[in-house]
Design brief:
7 helices; 6 strands
């Protein structure tokens, strides 16, 4: 641990004129002034604490030891909190809970398989992932939707999450167009499965029915994900 009582650098007086080379002395004085200011601030904080031991004026100062180099250069600032980009950390989006009862209502005997996909296990077939994505849309789960698809226009997961959050009306006031009909989805119907192609219908109540044939691709972690392409996608 560095000592706060570092040896001072004394100003040198040159002969015969008595001119002072005081750069080092000035640096030392700045360090001393910083130390005095820090000590006074600490004393004030300690003497303004309430009866419970916590300050009613400000948060307690963190105990900080100044190095000799800081004293000599006069740079005795408190360390800055380390955060990404020196800014406030962006809060993570939370995933909503989806009950097994709801999954059974939407998917029948496939409910347990869909639940496994939603909780992180790889989808054993394209159909299971499409069903899981429907349940994620119904629950407005932007995280699952963003992670279970490809989008060449938005390669970053965070950008895809934001896009889905706009569609679901969770972030911003931008108009997502016809996609906002998905906010009222209430029923899923599987039409057919042919290899990696899954045809289905999503009932969105008064906002219509989405009839789509999606192309899925294999994925190392999630088993199958949406490729970003569809054979067709129509609103009825």
């Amino acid at each position: 641990m560095a000592s706060i009582f570092a040896s001072p650098r004394i100003a040198v007086i040159s002969a015969p004129t008595g001119e002072k080379h005081c750069r080092r002395g000035q640096s030392w004085r700045r360090g001393v002034h910083a130390l005095v200011a820090w000590s006074v601030g600490t004393w004030i904080c300690q003497h303004l604490r309430g009866p419970t031991g916590s300050s009613f004026v400000m948060a307690p100062f963190a105990s900080t030891v100044l190095s000799s180099s800081q004293l000599q250069s006069g740079t005795s600032r408190l360390p800055r909190q380390a955060t990404k980009g020196f800014g406030a950390a962006k809060p993570k989006r939370k995933r909503p809970a989806i009950s097994l009862e709801q999954l059974r209502t939407d998917h029948g005997e496939k409910a347990e398989a869909v639940q496994e996909v939603l909780t992180g296990k790889p989808a054993s077939c394209p159909e299971d992932m499409v069903r899981a994505r429907f349940s994620a849309v119904r629950a407005k789960d932007v995280v699952f939707m963003a992670r279970s698809e490809k989008d060449e226009g938005r390669p970053k997961v965070d950008d895809r999450e934001h896009g889905w959050a706009v569609v679901f009306g969770l972030e911003d006031d931008a108009d997502p167009g016809i996609s906002q009909a998905l906010r009222t989805c209430k029923g899923f119907e599987l039409v057919s499965v042919d290899g990696n192609e899954v045809e289905f219908k999503i009932d969105c109540g008064d906002n219509g029915v989405l009839h789509e044939r999606s192309v899925m691709v294999e994925h190392k972690k999630f088993g199958h994900i949406y490729s970003g392409d569809s054979i067709f996608s129509n609103w009825l």
